[in-house]
Write a structure and sequence with these properties.
Length: about 425
């Protein structure tokens, strides 16, 4: 009985507590929305700050601190695995949606799970329960787990931005603000008006002196104009290729690249992450400040999930058509994300780690890779509902679907226990 308790009950209880902690954090976002502490606009602003500022900062610190010339192979394995399972998920989503006649939003729901906020918060919660100590009790184990999940998130986000901008609405969790189109104007007049508008806007918002703002705005605008003219001179095929490649340039990817450069260059790694008496002259102030804002990402983004779910439900509460949860897509997505992918990823990573030399001997790496394909759909489905012109009833159905999907997110505790036991078995063999 004691062996059963030690082998299953204790890890399961710890994983369940960690999952409930994530669910409660979402619930706090719902409470904030219910009491008008956060509204839809503020949630969108917070989400934008999370994606464009906090997540890149987190990537710079975690990837840069953990990555070096010796650990580079670990991250290469994460990159390859992230691309493989995301592409397979997209292909499967397209096939299922087409052959079963499911709604269009089922494809991204199957293709992209929540790879950022939920895994990071889950890791933090697992740290408090102490169940990862059986794999690695070192002080940097949690930071390594975060860095692996962040690299996976960077790949997932980049694929989302590049391959699904029309479905998933680019790099925002919400619909973009449409920019007003200019009427036909004289080119020189349009140029003068645009420069004047940008100068006035920057003079009102920038803390720099106006004399410093005006030349900068004019230089940026003229550079943009020259690049636009060069782009217009290219062939349509070349423009299409450049448009596709441009989608990969997003803040999380830039943060990961900066972190990779800092980590792989020994002098920069020492400067940013060593103690001050060992040459880390930037560690105590610059690195610490970047880490401070990066640590805001996980909890804030999960709170935003709660706000969005609450607002999505309230938006249609007074409507005559309340919608219904589409049971067939819900069942398929739940089974794929919480059952099928763990049944694939855990044995596959176990084989690669125990029977081959493809993966390094880091139990935290095995554990993280086993869990990467698991979890509820990304919240970008709410943006898809707006962009695709879905009716109110379908939007309400999606809102209910996401609410239930995140309500049952503690199901991930079974995958956590499976990944934990498999990693322990590899380490002890």
């Amino acid at each position: 009985m004691s062996n059963v308790k030690e082998d299953f009950v204790i890890p399961f209880t710890g994983a369940l507590q960690a999952s409930l902690a994530v669910l409660l954090t979402i619930f706090y976002g719902v409470i904030a929305a219910q009491f008008d502490l956060l509204n839809e606009k503020s949630a969108k602003d917070i989400s934008k700050a999370c994606v464009r500022l906090f997540l890149p900062a987190l990537l710079i610190v975690n990837v840069g601190q953990q990555l070096n010339l010796e650990s580079g192979t670990r991250y290469l394995a994460v990159l390859i695995w992230a691309i493989i399972y995301n592409v397979l998920s997209m292909v499967f989503g397209l096939a299922v949606t087409k052959f079963m006649g499911l709604p269009q939003w089922v494809t991204p729901a199957l293709a992209f799970n929540n790879t950022t906020s939920l895994p990071l918060l889950l890791v933090q919660s697992l740290q408090s329960t102490g169940i990862l100590d059986s794999l690695d009790a070192s002080s940097d184990a949690i930071d390594r787990a975060k860095s692996y999940f962040l690299v996976n998130a960077m790949v997932s986000n980049s694929l989302t931005f590049a391959l699904g901008p029309r479905l998933l609405n680019g790099q925002e969790e919400d619909s973009p603000d449409e920019e007003p189109k200019r009427e036909d104007q004289d080119e020189e007049a349009a140029e003068r008006n645009s420069i004047h508008e940008h100068q006035q806007e920057n003079e009102e918002t920038s803390l720099l002196p106006n004399r410093a703002v005006r030349p900068g705005v004019k230089a940026i605008y003229l550079t943009h104009k020259r690049l636009s003219n060069f782009y217009s001179s290219l062939s349509p095929r070349t423009q299409a290729v450049l448009d596709f490649l441009w989608q990969f340039f997003n803040p999380p990817l830039i943060g990961a690249v900066i972190g990779g450069i800092v980590g792989l260059v020994p002098a920069l790694h020492t400067l940013f992450f060593s103690s001050p008496n060992k040459g880390g002259y930037l560690n105590a102030w610059l690195t610490a400040s970047i880490k401070n804002i990066g640590d805001l990402f996980a909890s804030l983004q999960v709170v935003v999930v709660g706000v969005k779910l609450s607002q999505a439900m309230l938006r249609y509460k007074k409507g005559e058509q309340s919608g219904s949860v589409p049971w067939k897509p819900f069942t398929i997505i739940t089974v794929v994300r919480f059952v099928i992918w763990p049944l694939i990823s855990i044995p596959l990573i176990w084989i690669l780690a125990s029977k081959t030399s493809v993966l390094s001997d880091d139990p935290i790496l095995w554990f993280a890779m086993m869990l990467m394909p698991t979890g509820p759909p990304a919240m970008k489905l709410t943006a898809l509902a707006d962009v695709s012109g879905a009716g109110d009833e379908e939007k309400m159905s999606i809102a209910k679907f996401l609410t239930i999907s995140y309500a049952i997110s503690p199901l991930i505790c079974f995958s956590v226990v499976g990944a934990l036991k498999a990693s322990q078995a590899i380490a002890s063999s």
